[in-house]
Each structure stands twice: as structure tokens, then as C-alpha cells.
């Protein structure tokens, strides 16, 4: 038996990426990933969207039972992220008194919205706190990244990429700037990673490192 293209949709706030021949699913609400080796063929490219086309009804029902998909069609928007083409120096810079204040405010945000909070809460916080958009000021962004590098060793917790990106995102926003929070995946071995990006400029990682990940979520 074959399910039609319109038979299945991702669970609410579910996201998908195709890494070579593999399919990776992200459930933001549950904070979990699933990797389906060789499952890339289950996703049809529909312009700016993806759609699920699962020919094996038993397999589809198994995904539905696990909470990854549900009956009914809903095309999944493709993550919109310019291909990374530029990087910043990650050397520490000089921090002014105002910079220290902004970092302090960012650490308060982290205390309130990171520690003990779910992945879904982090994403919701980042989405609703976006400041008014303006042209990206590369020099201002570079300065704040340098400030971040200078002050991070004094933070009470260094954390993994999720923590560091969330902290830097809050620092940028307290300084009146913004960036997108990109989440990417790769397989063999499976690994998930996140970083900040402004246009095609990577702010908090090496360009050649993030190039190895396929975007699955852009906040």
C-alpha cells in the first residue's frame, strides 16, 4: 500500500533536513532528533518547502506512533539561511563599561531562560525577543563578538554551543543588534550544532566548521 504525498505532515514545530541520503527530523517541543539512514528519498523538494512522501505505510505509522508525523498535508518550509561565506576573528576585544553592563544583562537572561529550561522554551524566547530589524552593522557585530570573547572566561558557566550561542544572541540584542540562530546537523556520525549568523557572516564559529552542517532550523 502506498501513502499519497498529501497523507503526512510533520508534528507541530517539527523540522527536517536531508543530509546526503539520510533524513534528520527535529521535534522542537520534545527537544529531540531522529536520524533515518537512507531516508532522504522520503522528502520531496517543493520549491521553498519540503513535503513528506512515505511509500511504506507501516514505516509511516511507526513514525506517527512515535510522534514525529501526523496524518494530513502541511508543506514544511525550507530553512532560510544564506550559505556561510565570511567569518570573524574570534580573538578577544576590549570591553567598555557599557559592554560589561550588556553582558551582565545577557547573563541575567540566561539565568532566567536557559538553566533548567526546555529546548522549546529557548527557541520561543529567541523568537519573541527579536528587536526591530535594521541593516547589519558588521563593525558593531565584530566589536560585540570580541567583547563576548573577552568576557566569556568570567562567566559562571562556559557551556556547550547551545549555551554560548544563546548568551551571545542576548548580548547582541542588548547592544541593539541581532543575528539568526542557526541549527545544523550532519550524519556518520550524527551530530547537531548551532551558531549565530548575520547574512552570510558567521559570528561565533569557524567558517569551515559550520560548512559541514546542513541547516534544519533557523530562528
Short overview:
By secondary structure, the protein is of the alpha+beta class. The protein has helices at 57-65, 97-113, 119-128, 138-151, 161-174, 207-210; strands at residues 8-10, 14-19, 22-27, 32-36, 43-46, 49-52, 69-71, 76-77, 86-87, 180-186, 191-198, 201-202, 214-218. Strand 3 and strand 4 (32-36) form a beta hairpin.
- Topology pattern, helix = H, strand = E: EEEEEEHEEEHHHHEEEHE
Largest sheet: 5 strands, mixed
| Alpha-beta content class | alpha+beta
Number of strands: 13
What is the end-to-end distance? 38 Å
Question: Percent of residues in helical segments?
Answer: 25-40%
**Mean of residue pLDDT?**
88
Count of domains = 2
Strand content: 25-35%
- Cα-based radius of gyration, to the nearest Å: 19 Å
Q: Helix tally? A: 6
Amino acid at each position: 500500500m502506498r501513502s499519497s504525498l498529501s497523507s503526512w505532515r510533520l508534528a507541530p514545530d517539527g523540522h527536517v533536513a536531508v543530509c546526503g541520503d539520510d533524513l534528520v527530523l527535529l521535534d522542537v517541543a520534545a527537544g529531540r532528533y531522529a536520524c533515518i539512514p537512507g531516508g532522504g528519498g522520503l522528502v520531496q523538494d517543493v520549491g521553498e518547502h519540503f513535503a513528506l512522501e512515505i511509500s511504506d505505510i507501516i514505516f509511516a505509522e511507526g513514525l506517527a506512533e512515535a510522534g514525529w508525523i501526523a496524518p494530513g498535508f502541511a508543506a514544511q518550509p525550507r530553512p532560510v539561511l544564506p550559505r556561510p561565506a565570511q567569518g570573524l576573528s574570534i580573538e578577544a576585544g576590549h570591553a567598555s563599561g557599557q559592554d560589561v553592563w550588556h553582558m551582565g544583562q545577557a547573563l541575567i537572561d540566561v539565568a532566567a531562560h536557559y538553566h533548567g529550561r526546555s529546548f522549546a522554551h529557548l527557541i520561543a524566547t529567541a523568537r519573541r525577543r527579536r528587536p526591530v530589524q535594521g541593516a547589519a552593522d558588521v563593525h558593531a557585530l565584530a566589536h560585540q563578538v570580541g567583547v563576548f570573547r573577552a568576557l566569556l572566561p568570567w562567566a559562571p558557566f562556559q557551556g556547550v554551543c547551545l549555551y554560548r550561542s544563546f548568551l551571545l544572541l542576548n548580548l547582541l540584542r542588548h547592544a541593539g543588534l541581532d543575528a539568526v540562530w542557526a541549527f545544523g546537523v550532519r550524519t556518520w556520525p550524527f551530530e547537531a550544532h548551532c551558531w549565530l549568523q548575520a547574512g552570510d557572516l558567521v559570528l561565533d564559529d569557524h567558517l569551515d566548521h559550520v560548512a559541514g552542517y546542513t541547516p534544519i532550523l533557523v530562528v
